[in-house]
């Protein structure tokens, strides 16, 4: 018996050996492929998912969200709650306790001053910070000692975890960014391309819009991690190529966001080197209506700004008709199969925040036609409606992606049936989501009438996400075209609800309010026309262990725990 | 072939008797040309493709942009030969794509765009190339600057240049000519201004040699103006290398357009061209190889036939080769 248990113990020890004996850098190299290439390593200067996630390997927030949406402390000792005294009873402050002995990758100590600096950096009025909504309602940040950060809110903050939680608001090093405040933020190339962080990896070489080489951070807090000595994040190409590189040829270990038709994915999995994993979150493929006039006749600087309302889309009946003509079931079936469900909501999850809005799911071409007739658009002999000499003609842009081009073709056909002429345009994804203020083709500039892309929110609370649609938060020349209110939506009643949501603590009331706001953006105004709630499909190599698929945070959130299974 | 060549030097001094009525030059060219089997086939195919894309939609009247979801992923009709379960239909003899667009109609419409770009860009290339070549070869003062300019343009990489041009000029052209015509002008224009250099060099070289020849001297002595000499005596003599370079230019233009569409920066995504069809088909090329092969084959065959045609023309237009 004793012998047996000894043997068993030995066997178990042997089986666990790869995990137990792992030390930093023992598993060699891991490759990650993003078909949109990162162009900057700062989430504060780019809203692009690729940039946020590429930087998440280096810079970390105080806490992250795991694969189930739960909060996990990273740089903090624990997640502050009312129970443990971290959150004040009146909801007006939150106290974070930092882990002791943390150092940056350059060896200098990590302190509460860095946390405070991060907030100052983003809240600087001239900076055009892409994550400003995360700091909504923050009044002041105090640092009583090196390991304590107290965030004071202007009014009771029922969900105090938007700042410094999740991939979008990581802590940057004060010493590195000190001279990069405000308007100088974009000029600090060294810092923006090679941030010093506390994460498992540090940047060795960054080629913007191409490839990033990382090496393990020698000062990472867990001496046994990360198991990989080097990491390559290759950007660019397309989703098909990325999928093949992981599932068919095995050159890479993780392929991000495989937005591919279901039959194509199934075929790739037959390659045997990896599998496609999908996880549902809040990612919604939607059509955004431009409420401002993108006409090229307007001078640069006024084009697509609130100074000029859109001549056609300002009429809600047109927007509603455009939405009614779309068959979302069919789109989902063709584009995503099991990895998508048709939706009418901007906030499709979590359950309590999801509105029961399902009116849009039924396609109604006749109704749409009737609505346009009522709005005064009369059908011309060439099948295009006109009104006061203006043709009902729209420019419809999106990023280059086979599924999106299929969607464009289908939607164009439906819109043709209701007398809308559509011009399609597709822009390379790295440019479209690149956020370069000099390019006319970014989704923020929105030099088109309607555009299609997908977006989601991190964490389980939609407040910052809904707060994006505040008047004045739109991309505009004075903010270097940074800003999240892509549609240039502006309604004082909505702004009032943002403030009300920020002051409401009770969960039921918050949910009711969030649903109302969701409905206001979708079925009441048709500013945003949601199409499909997309699962995030990731290609994962069969030999990669420890990968946990979180749709609530960066895809690479637990890179420190990855290991090789062979 | 017509007259046996005199093989002793003495005979060369005598004028042989004319035994047959004079033949036109073009007739000789044709006689030589039809001996080149490849060129004949190539020419025939090119004419066939050109006619097919011009008039094909009168016979095959399905709208290439029409989506028919119920009939998606139809295989070409010949698939039924080895796979009786395949989804085929006589209504779509070459099958349909993943959105149910008819492939035959797409090939016809796509060919029209590709061929139009090819021909237009080629003509533009020849115009610019010949003008610069003639000016540089004929007028000594212009030779240096023009040829250095040619070297400069030659060193420009065409694809990145096109990408920049698309970004810069798409907006104004779209506003003035509409999205499809605007893009057509842009692509043709950029291909035209970046691929005339070969033609210019060839023409200049030939003109340099020709202008020292006796017949040019004679023309000059007779008081012919420079303009007259160029149009009457020089241009007809550089025609043969020019035509060869024109056929190659046509092929290059078709390939460049395909590459652009393949990269997704060319025409709008619902405007079929061969390159676009190819790009759309790549994700599913294992299951539906015909969707890649069809436009690929069309591009290859057209380019190949144009090259053969050029080869045959070169032989036929060169009097020194003719008759051998």
Structure, described:
The complex is a heterodimer of chains A (566) and B (324). Chain A starts with a helix and ends with a strand. Chain A has 566 residues and is an alpha+beta fold. In chain A, the strands form 5 sheets. In chain A, strands 1, 7, 8, 9, 10, 11, 12, 16, 17, 18 and 19 form an 11-stranded mixed sheet that branches. Chain A has a 3-stranded antiparallel sheet with strand order 4-6-5. Chain A is built from 15 helices and 21 strands. Chain A is globular and about 75 Å long. Chain A has 2 domains: 3-279 and 539-564, D-Maltodextrin-Binding Protein, domain 2 (3-Layer(aba) Sandwich); 282-535, Roll (Dipeptide-binding Protein, domain 3), CATH 3.10.105. Chain B is 68% helix and 0% strand. Chain B is globular. Chain B has a domain at 102-324: MetI-like fold. Chain B has helices spanning 9-12, 25-33, 37-59, 103-138, 140-154, 158-177, 179-194, 197-210, 214-221, 226-263, 274-281, 289-317. Chain B has 324 residues and is mainly α. Chain B contains 12 helices and no strands. The A-B interface holds A 240, 260-261, 263-264, 267, 296-297, 330, 334, 400, 402, 405-406, 408-410, 412-413, 423-426, 428, 439-441 and B 65-67, 69, 98-99, 167, 171-172, 174-175, 179, 264-265, 268-270, 280, 282-284, 286-287.
């Amino acid at each position: 018996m004793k012998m047996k248990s000894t043997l068993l113990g030995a066997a178990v020890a042997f089986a666990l050996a790869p995990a137990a004996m792992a030390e930093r850098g023992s598993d060699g190299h891991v490759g990650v492929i993003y078909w949109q290439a990162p162009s900057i390593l700062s989430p504060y200067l780019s809203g692009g998912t690729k940039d946020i996630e590429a930087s998440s390997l280096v810079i970390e927030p105080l806490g992250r969200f795991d694969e189930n949406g739960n909060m996990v402390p990273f740089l903090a000792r624990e997640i502050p709650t009312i129970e443990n005294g971290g959150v004040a009873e009146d909801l007006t402050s939150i106290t974070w306790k930092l882990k002791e002995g943390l150092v940056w990758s350059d060896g200098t100590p990590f302190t509460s001053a860095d946390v405070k600096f991060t907030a100052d950096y983003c809240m600087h009025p001239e900076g055009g910070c892409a994550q400003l909504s995360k700091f909504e309602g923050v009044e002041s940040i105090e640092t009583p000692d090196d390991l304590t950060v107290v965030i004071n809110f202007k009014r009771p903050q029922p969900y105090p975890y938007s700042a410094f939680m999740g991939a979008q608001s990581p802590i940057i090093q004060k010493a590195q960014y000190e001279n990069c405040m405000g308007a100088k933020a974009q000029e600090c190339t060294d810092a923006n391309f090679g941030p010093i962080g506390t994460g498992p990896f540090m940047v060795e070489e960054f080629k913007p819009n191409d490839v990033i080489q990382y090496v393990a951070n020698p000062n990472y807090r867990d001496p046994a991690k990360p198991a990989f000595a080097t990491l390559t994040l290759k950007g660019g190409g397309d989703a098909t190529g990325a999928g093949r590189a992981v599932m068919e040829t095995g050159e890479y270990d993780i392929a991000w966001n495989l937005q591919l038709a279901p039959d194509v994915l199934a075929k790739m999995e037959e390659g045997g080197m990896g599998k496609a994993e999908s996880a549902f979150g809040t990612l919604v493929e939607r059509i955004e209506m431009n409420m401002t006039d993108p006409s090229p006749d307007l001078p640069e600087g006024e084009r697509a700004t609130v100074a000029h309302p859109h001549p056609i889309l300002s009429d809600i009946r047109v927007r509603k008709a455009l939405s009614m003509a779309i068959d979302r079931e069919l789109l989902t079936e063709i584009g995503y199969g099991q990895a998508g469900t048709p939706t009418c909501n901007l906030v499709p999850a979590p359950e309590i925040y999801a509105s029961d809005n399902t009116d849009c799911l039924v396609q109604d071409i006749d109704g749409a036609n009737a609505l346009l007739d009522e709005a005064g658009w009369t059908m011309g002999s060439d099948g295009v409606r006109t009104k006061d000499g203006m043709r009902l003609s729209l420019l419809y842009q999106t990023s280059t992606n086979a599924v999106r081009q299929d969607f464009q073709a289908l939607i164009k056909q439906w819109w043709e049936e209701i007398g809308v002429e559509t011009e399609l345009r597709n822009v390379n994804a790295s440019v479209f989501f690149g956020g370069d203020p000099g390019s006319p083709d970014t989704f923020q500039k929105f030099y088109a009438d309607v555009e299609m892309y997908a977006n989601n929110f991190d964490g389980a609370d939609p407040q910052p996400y809904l707060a994006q649609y505040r008047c004045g938060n739109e991309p505009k020349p004075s903010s270097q075209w940074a800003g999240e209110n892509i549609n240039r939506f502006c309604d004082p009643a909505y702004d009032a609800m943002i403030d009300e949501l920020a002051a409401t603590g009770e969960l039921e009331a918050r949910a009711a309010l969030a649903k109302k706001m969701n409905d206001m953006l979708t079925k009441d105004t048709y500013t945003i026309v949601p199409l499909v709630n997309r699962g995030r499909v990731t290609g994962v190599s069969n030999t990669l262990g420890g990968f946990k698929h979180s749709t609530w945070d960066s895809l690479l959130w637990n890179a420190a725990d990855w290991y090789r299974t062979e | 072939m017509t007259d046996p060549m005199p093989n002793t030097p003495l005979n060369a001094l005598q004028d042989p008797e004319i035994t047959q009525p004079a033949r036109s030059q073009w007739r000789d060219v044709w006689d030589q040309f039809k001996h080149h089997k490849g060129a004949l086939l190539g020419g025939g195919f090119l004419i066939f493709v050109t006619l097919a894309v011009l008039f094909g939609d009168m016979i095959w009247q399905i709208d290439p942009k029409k989506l028919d979801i119920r009939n998606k992923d139809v295989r070409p009709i010949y698939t039924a030969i080895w796979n009786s379960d395949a989804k085929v239909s006589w209504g779509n003899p070459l099958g349909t794509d993943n959105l149910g667009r008819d492939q035959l109609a797409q090939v016809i419409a796509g060919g029209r765009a590709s061929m139009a770009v090819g021909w237009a860009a080629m003509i533009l290339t020849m115009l610019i190339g010949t003008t610069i070549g003639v000016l540089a070869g004929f007028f000594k003062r212009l030779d240096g600057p023009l040829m250095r300019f040619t070297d400069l343009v030659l060193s420009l990489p065409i694809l990145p240049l096109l990408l920049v041009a698309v970004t810069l000029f798409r907006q104004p052209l779209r506003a003035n000519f509409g999205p499809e015509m605007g893009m057509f002008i842009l692509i043709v224009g950029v291909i035209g201004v970046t691929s005339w250099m070969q033609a210019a060099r060839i023409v200049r070289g030939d003109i340099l040699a020709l202008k020292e020849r006796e017949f040019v001297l004679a023309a000059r002595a007779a008081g012919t103006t420079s303009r007259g000499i160029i149009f009457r005596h020089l241009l007809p003599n550089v025609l043969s290398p020019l035509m060869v370079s024109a056929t190659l230019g046509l092929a290059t233009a078709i390939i460049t357009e395909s590459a652009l569409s393949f990269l997704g920066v060319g025409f709008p995504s619902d405007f079929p061209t061969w390159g676009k069809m190819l790009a759309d088909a790549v994700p599913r090329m294992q299951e539906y190889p015909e969707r890649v092969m069809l436009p690929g084959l069309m591009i290859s065959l057209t380019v190949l036939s144009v090259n053969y045609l050029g080869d045959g023309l070169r032989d036929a237009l060169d009097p020194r080769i003719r008759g051998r």
